[in-house]
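Protein: Hydroxyacid dehydrogenase
Species: Scytonema hofmannii PCC 7110
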Amino acid sequence: MKIILPVELAADIEPLLPSDVTHVRVDSDGNFEGDPQEAEVYFNGFKLKNTTLHTVLAAAPRICWQHTPSSGVNHILTPTFLKYDIVLTNGSGVHAIPMAEFVLNFMLYHAKKVQKLQELQISHYWYKWLELEELYNKTLLIIGTGNIGREIALRAKAFGMQIWGSRRHPEPLPNFDKIVGVNEWRSLLPQADYVVVATPLTPETKGLIDAEALRLMRPSAYLINIARGAIVDESALLTALGEGWIAGAGLDTFETEPLLPESPFWSLPNVFVTPHCSALTPQLRQRIVALFIDNLTRYRNGQLLRNIVDKTVGY
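Structure follows.
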């Protein structure tokens, strides 16, 4: 049996492969180290480009299972990919802990006025009476209650927050005080202190946070996006931030990445920009490898794979 591995993860995976599994490496541009023609499993790399995906699919026509380390698969579900009968699995769950912690980082940064405190330190000015906020008793609305959303709720509940969630099929979940359907979350915006975008990017969620949604939020509310940039209408968000519709935003993802140097988001005083890094910890790499090896064992044994993507809904 032959598999295709991304060069950035191959060294971690190769020592864990069974002796009868051979492999070839592929780089981010689709260049192979070896012959991929007989490969039936493809583990793609980070930030997979369409050109690389299509090159691999053309070079290895026997692929029947593809695994991606990312949770989002919008970049994989191209018309070309969908022509193939390939089972797709994703990295859902492996990013949840670090990303949930990062959301708390965004909320505490805002509530505790960290930017202002750093400015005081830089200016050597001892101003004791800066009024800070508490997360206790604040209301958090999480749009998307998958693995990441649930880990956010677990940590936020420890701060004494009231936690609401939105999901396709509403049902009670641990640490959530209220869960509504996908058509009901807008009615909760006027009461939310923090709104976190944690839903996959699909045709239905593209531009989900639009001008109407931003207008419904409190002037004191804070928006956090750790999902995909295209879920937020960036033009509307710039207006909302500039005109005070909302208090600020923590943004780890943007529609165009890297964020262009001339983007106004960089210099807005009420925005915390981070370079799509919320999941990046040493433990993440270990979880990615462990999930793939577990699924490879399942694949070889004819068992149901973990994290199979429903290509019709996009996650």
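Remarks: The CA atoms of residues 211 and 236 lie 5 Å apart.
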